[in-house]
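Please check these two lines:
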Amino acid sequence: MNLGVGENLMLSDKNPPFEIKSSPVKAQLPLICHIPHSSTIVPNHVRNTFLISNSDLDKQILAMTDHFTDELFDEVKELGGLMFVNRVSRLVFDPERFLNDSDEPMSAYGMGAVYLKTKNELFLRDVNEYTKEREKIIEEFFNPYLLKIETEIEGLLRKFGKCFIVDGHSFPLIPSPYENAKLIRPDICLGYDSYHGPKEILDGLTDIIKGQGVSVSHNTPFSGSYVPGKFYRKNLKVKSLMIEINRGTYMDERTGTKGLRFEKMKRVTSKILNEITQHL
């Protein structure tokens, strides 16, 4: 199985590490759906800095990718929102981590903005070369990505006076080694913080999800939601809600293929997105 390892993706101003998708006909809403972890692509020049074998890399991509989240959330385009999708694997860089490792809790596990280790603590990059490689990745990938999503959010704020971020993720059925295995793992987890959380719609969203026969929790097993640092706890006009979908509900995690319930979970996600648009 090869999930995109070694693809020759050359990045430039014309071919950036992100893709922005929208409907050409639907009127725009102050809504942006961030999909940071759906890609399996590792460009050749980054792959060449990794220590692990192709076989181990395939296994890590299979385990760590939020597979098909770009499809599960794509109705946001037809509703008038933007999709902002990371075009490379999170093993290249993780746009949802704080840039400074001192601010990022996951850096304790070697998984900050640029991963040193994999989820099962294999060394992904050479410790002796890590600082230099990290600087290159931040310059090539992280900074252009952050600048562009900040620009898109600013544009929505200027046009509408507000912006709602849907942070689209999935999570494995079985907890990762660094997770608390005692926490419940529902079908869907809604994550938010006290500052940017859309408190006024959380009860309604919960009822809609439960009405589909789907279990839901708030901030368990994952909490918070993505807001770029420029706005984080500085601008109340930016709301953000993380929607984490349990992979066991829509795919076969052993093979990376869609499961029988994929279309059902896509419909549930659609209902969530539709409800959000009613409050914009």
The chain has one domain: 5-277. Confidence is low (pLDDT under 50) at residues 1-8. Residues 130-160 form the longest helix (31 residues).
